[in-house]
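Milestone 3.1: sequence recovery, worked example.
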């Protein structure tokens, strides 16, 4: 992978999202999420499972960084990313459409841009990926929601919604909380990534429940 190209694209992505805020994650969250998913992909491709696979590393890492680019279109005049505001299509389909606008400044090979866009479009939940790069990014993206870091999203979300620790507890124990994570863990494509997600989820569960314990004074 051309490191200069990757560095330039990181700077481009940062400029797009650093002043954007969202309920679950606060300011610049989307930028950091993109960089994390890219870093996870860099590590995942080194797993023995991928030793004999043909993987386009450039397409993988650039698509990983830009996988949520479609969300830029849902930023309102206050800099807020309004979830779901993608003009009737998924943020993945929208992202695949608008990504060339940003990538063409740095990448001259049309074939590479087309492949990156295909991979971004294949991030849509109802699309069955045709490329191994798409599956790796889907797993890396999912993994980013399984650990202690997710507490940051929950806390900022609760704050923006004027909720307190009890609000967080309701979320964690409700349909969108713990149960959803447990049922979604079957969606990981690669057992090696799933194993890390399970380890992270144990930590998240422990940290979250310790917080509730303290809140109720149950540790005394
Ligand atoms: Fe996404
Ligand atoms: Fe994502």
């Amino acid at each position: 992978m051309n490191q200069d190209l990757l560095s330039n694209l990181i700077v481009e992505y940062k400029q797009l999202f650093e002043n954007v805020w969202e309920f679950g994650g606060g300011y610049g969250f989307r930028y950091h999420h993109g960089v994390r998913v890219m870093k996870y992909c860099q590590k995942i491709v080194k797993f023995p499972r991928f030793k004999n696979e043909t993987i386009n590393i450039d397409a993988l890492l650039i698509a990983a960084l830009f996988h949520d680019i479609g969300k830029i279109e849902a930023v309102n005049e206050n800099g807020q990313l309004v979830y779901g505001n993608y003009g009737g299509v998924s943020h993945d389909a929208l992202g695949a459409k608008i990504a060339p606008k940003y990538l063409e400044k740095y990448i001259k090979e049309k074939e590479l841009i087309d492949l990156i866009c295909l991979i971004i479009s294949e991030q849509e939940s109802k699309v069955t990926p045709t490329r191994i790069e798409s599956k790796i990014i889907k797993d890396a993206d999912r993994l980013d929601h399984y650990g202690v870091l997710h507490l940051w999203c929950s806390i900022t979300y609760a704050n923006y919604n004027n909720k307190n620790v009890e609000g967080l507890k309701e979320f964690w124990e409700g349909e969108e909380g713990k149960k959803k994570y447990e049922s979604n863990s079957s969606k990981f494509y690669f057992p090696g990534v799933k194993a890390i997600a399970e380890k992270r989820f144990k930590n998240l569960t422990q940290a979250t429940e310790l917080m509730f314990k303290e809140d109720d004074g149950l540790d005394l």
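The radius of gyration is 18 Å. The chain has two domains: 3-127, 149-215.
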